[in-house]
């Protein structure tokens, strides 16, 4: 239920386990919207709980001398999916709507309700939201048309980047919530919405298959991107174990509350030692899906045995660099010796010094660095500048990425589901019944591909200014090429 509260107050209504008790903590803020979520095992209990909460809200508003616009209030009622068998039509819709009252006036019960940019419906189908994307798409497409039709000679790669970062993000707002179980009609609607932009970007014929345009432009189908966003949300935010075939939730990094961490542990600034026992060079490397790091210790310019560690494919080079620094700190603590660490990863050093980092993995590195603050000096060195120690660490890091000892580190938040998306896209493309000519030339998808030459697109997709194609639509009477017709006339 939503409504408008007039005033500089924001209400956060919480429901305790006891359905008779409601608490409404009040804090000063700017807001003009109030949302109330209640539940009940039966329609009667739902009415009672909701009306009790509305009465308490009304009392608090009167105390604060605020009023609420009842005409703008709306309520959306639905059964839970588990109890929909109690409905006459086996849906989430109530057989008869409950009655909600605020200050003696009935609150309007609607079939759809827009809140925080999402359109909810009483069937929990998300159809109104997905079908309503057309209006947003037309507004975005008008801006897209302005760029394409201009004489600015905007590069196709820039237009593709604009589509992926602006248009797609706007269309898929909230996809982590509504993209879990798309039905056939919803997928078709997303196809038609995306098709508007694909045709504009490619300048292809309107009869060109959408699947072919996706492949030629390197833009994944919208419903597959939606699915990947939904899975990402379930894995990262809900820590769901339903997708263990992709990644185990236990292997994920997480954010920690840094409000209770002391400042001397948040900001780690190591001293630049002039007197130390060992000189250390570290480096991380990624080659294809292989990630690793190396640590090279020098004692009086003599190289000691090199440590090489291989990490998981989902780990980043940034994590590898941090893991190398963390290894150095642990090594110095274990032997109680002073070391000077040279790293060419400025981002890793800045992360250790930053007070805003919340990653549990980075914070654990900070803890080790704090404990070894009197033993470890961390210095940045320019990469590939002819420094023998740094070049040696770089050489061994490349070897470590495929031949090092195993080291397990949580997956970073930058971990993407690109591999999952590509597998889904290739499977969808392989099983599609359209775009056969394109499939013969390009049997697999590639995100980096961008064919912008319209004549090449004509050739790869079949629809184009060819006599055989134009004859199908009665534009030409003869499907043969002009040169073939002339040759036959000469022979005659």
UniProtKB/TrEMBL annotation:
- Coiled-coil regions listed: none
- Give any GO molecular function from the UniProt entry: RNA-DNA hybrid ribonuclease activity
Span-the-membrane segments of this chain are none
Per UniProt, residues of the RNase H type-1 domain are 274-402
* Pfam families reported for this sequence: RNase_H
Query: In its UniProt entry, what is this protein called?
Result: RNase H type-1 domain-containing protein
């Amino acid at each position: 239920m939503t409504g408008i509260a007039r005033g500089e107050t924001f209400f956060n209504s919480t429901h305790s386990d006891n359905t008779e008790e409601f608490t409404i903590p009040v804090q000063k803020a700017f807001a003009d919207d109030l949302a109330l979520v209640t539940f009940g095992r039966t329609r009667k209990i739902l009415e009672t709980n909701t009306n009790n909460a509305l009465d308490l809200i009304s009392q608090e508003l009167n105390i604060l001398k605020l009023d609420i616009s009842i005409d703008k209030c709306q309520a959306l009622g639905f059964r839970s999916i588990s109890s929909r068998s109690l409905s006459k039509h086996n849906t989430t819709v109530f057989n008869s709507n409950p009655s909600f009252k605020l200050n003696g006036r009935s609150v309007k019960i609607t079939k759809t309700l827009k809140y925080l940019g999402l359109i909810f419906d009483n069937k929990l189908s998300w159809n109104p939201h997905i079908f309503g994307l057309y209006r947003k798409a037309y507004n975005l497409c008008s801006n897209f048309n302005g760029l394409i039709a201009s004489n600015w000679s905007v590069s196709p790669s820039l237009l593709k980047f604009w589509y992926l970062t602006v248009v797609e993000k706007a269309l898929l707002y909230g996809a982590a919530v509504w993209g879990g179980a798309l039905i056939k009609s919803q997928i078709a609607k997303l196809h038609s919405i995306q098709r508007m932009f694909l045709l504009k970007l490619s300048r292809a014929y309107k009869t060109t298959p959408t699947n072919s345009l996706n492949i030629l432009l390197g833009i994944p189908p919208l419903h597959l991107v939606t699915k990947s966003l939904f899975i990402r949300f379930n894995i990262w935010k809900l820590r769901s174990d339903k997708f263990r075939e992709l990644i185990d939730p236990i292997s994920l990094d997480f954010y920690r509350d840094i409000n209770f961490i002391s400042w001397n542990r948040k900001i780690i600034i190591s001293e630049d030692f002039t007197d130390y026992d060992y000189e250390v060079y570290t480096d991380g490397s990624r080659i294809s899906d292989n990630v690793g790091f190396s640590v090279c210790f020098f004692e009086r310019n003599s190289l000691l045995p090199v440590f090489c560690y291989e990490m998981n494919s989902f780990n980043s080079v940034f994590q590898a660099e941090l893991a190398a620094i963390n290894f150095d700190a642990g090594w110095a603590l274990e032997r109680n010796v002073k070391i000077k660490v040279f790293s060419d990863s400025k981002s890793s050093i800045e992360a250790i010094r930053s007070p805003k980092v919340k990653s549990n993995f980075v914070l654990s590195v900070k803890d080790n660095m704090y404990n070894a603050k009197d033993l470890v000096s961390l210095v940045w060195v320019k990469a590939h500048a002819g420094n023998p120690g740094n070049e040696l660490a770089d050489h061994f890091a490349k070897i470590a990425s495929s031949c090092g000892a195993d080291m397990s580190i949580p997956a970073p938040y930058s971990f993407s589901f690109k591999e999952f998306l590509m597998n889904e896209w290739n499977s969808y493309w392989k099983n599609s019944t359209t775009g056969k000519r394109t499939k013969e030339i390009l049997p697999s998808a590639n995100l980096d591909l961008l064919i912008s030459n319209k004549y090449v697109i004509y050739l790869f997709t079949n629809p184009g200014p060819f006599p055989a194609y134009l004859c199908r639509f009665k534009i030409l009477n003869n499907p043969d090429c002009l040169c073939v017709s002339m040759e036959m006339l000469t022979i005659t």
